[in-house]
Specification:
249 residues; alpha/beta; 11 helices; globular; binds 1,3-dihydroxyacetonephosphate
């Protein structure tokens, strides 16, 4: 059976006081969730705080991005090794906001993916199409290109230590969720693409859905055969909502 995961992506939200309140509320709310892993991906400055509050509590944490380089003269960047120092289990790479707003190309994302693996963390690789790409019929091409870049850099076997997240750009922060059938179709496509390289890796690869997941729509999405959990933005900032999504899985 594939492992199941719900990961919160806080994006650039929170402060010391609100994080403390959110994390402390999540601990009792998630205590009963034993068949799925729950994680929060927090802004870099709060990794130490998150580690301090969550260590030993059965909830994992991670970063939202890493630099593709290991160390050196890269002012303002944070390496995978640095986030690993704070007990992270996960690091997101290739989020559409990084791709669209900060210029992360497929090649850069592939290097970031390799950097995360190198320090022993689990990359959460995000892929997804824009509305224009979906409507013009190139959705599968775009997603294949995003997945293939990582396979070209690290090999298909490397996906055996990773998590994928399908996040249609048009569903992120818009309140417009992909239907379970739309999401399932793309998840099956991604799994098939990986299976062309390595069937066993494809079978074991957790593929999360992200894009306006809420407590009210999570169960229908998670019921689909190839949806193994969720990557949650806005709803991960509200303890009860995030906990309800984790319980739905
Ligand atoms: P929302 O859940 O706010 O749509 O964000 C999804 C996302 O981008 C998670 O990485």
């Amino acid at each position: 059976m594939r492992s199941k995961l719900v990961a919160g992506n806080w994006k650039m939200n929170g402060n010391l006081a609100s994080n403390q309140a959110l994390l402390k509320s999540l601990i009792p709310l998630l205590a009963s969730v034993t068949r799925a892993r729950c994680a929060v991906c927090v802004p870099y400055p709060y990794l130490a705080q998150t580690e301090q509050i969550l260590r030993g509590q059965g909830i994992s944490w991670g970063a939202q991005d890493v630099c593709e380089y290991e160390h050196g003269a890269y002012t303002g960047s944070v390496s995978a090794g640095m986030v690993a120092d704070f007990g992270c289990r996960f690091a997101i790479v290739g989020h559409s906001e990084r791709r669209a707003l900060f210029g992360d190309t497929d090649a850069v994302v592939a290097k970031k993916f390799a950097a995360v693996l190198k320090v022993g963390l689990t990359p959460i690789l995000c892929v997804g199409e824009t509305l224009a790409e979906r409507e013009s019929g190139v959705m599968e091409q775009v997603i294949a290109r995003q997945v293939d870049a990582v396979i070209a850099q690290s090999g298909a076997a490397a996906l055996g230590q990773a998590v994928l997240a399908y996040e249609p750009v048009w569903a992120i922060g818009t309140g417009k969720t992909a239907t379970p059938e739309q999401a399932q179709a793309v998840h099956a496509f991604i799994r098939g693409r990986v299976a062309e390289q390595d069937i066993r890796v494809a079978d074991g690869l957790p593929i999360l859905y992200g894009g306006s997941v809420k407590a009210s729509n999570a169960a229908q999405l998670f019921a689909m055969a190839d949806i193994d959990g969720g990557l949650i933005g806005g709803a991960s900032l509200v303890a009860e909502e995030f906990a309800a999504i984790c319980k739905a899985l």
